[in-house]
Amino acid sequence: MSSEDGNEILGSFYFKPDGVNEVELNIKYKPGFLDALQLICEKDSQQYQKVPLMKNTSLIFQYTDGNSKKLIRYKIDLEKNTIQIKDGEKDAGNRHFSCFLIGDGKRISYMVNKPNTKDKTASINKPHSLDGHEEL
Question: Mean of the pLDDT values across residues 124-133?
C-alpha cells in the first residue's frame, strides 16, 4: 500500500474511541487477545479507529492529569519494531501503551501492563537423602 504522498504504509495503529468523541483514545479500555482476533478478521474492526503507520510515524496524544492537559508523543518505527516515548511523562506513556493495538500485515500486537506485585518464588529446601544419611 502507498499513500498519496508516496510514503509506504507499513501498518496500522488501532484504538477504541472514547464514547463521546471518535478521535479520542479510550484510556479506560485495555484491549487483549480477543480484540486482536477481531482485528485480524476485519469484519469486526468497525468499532476501532485505524491510523495508518508509515516509516517513523509520530503520534501525539493529549491527556488530562488533574486540571492540566499534557502531551505524549510516540515515535513508532515498524521497520525496527520499536515504539519510543519522545515527549511527555514516561510513566503516563507506558501506562497508555496498553490502550492501543498495532497491526503489521496479518499480525496484531497489543501491550499489557504487568501488575505491581512482586514475583514470589517458592524456596526449595535441600532434599533429604534417600539412603538414610544426611550431609551436614
Answer: 60
User: What is the C-alpha to C-alpha distance for residues 89 and 71, in angstroms, rounded to an integer?
Assistant: 8
Q: Tell me the whole-structure pTM to 2 decimals.
A: 0.68
| Band of pLDDT at residue 70, cut at 50, 70 and 90 | confident
Q: Which of 15, 2, 14, 3 minimizes the C-alpha distance to 104?
A: 14
Torsion (CA) 23, 28, 31, 34 in degrees, nearest 10: -110
102 touches 82 (CB < 8 A): no
Closest CA to 101 of 60, 47, 48: 48
Length of the chain counted residue by residue: 136
Query: Would you say residue 105 has pLDDT above 70?
Result: yes
First-to-last CA distance in the chain?
71
SS3 67: coil
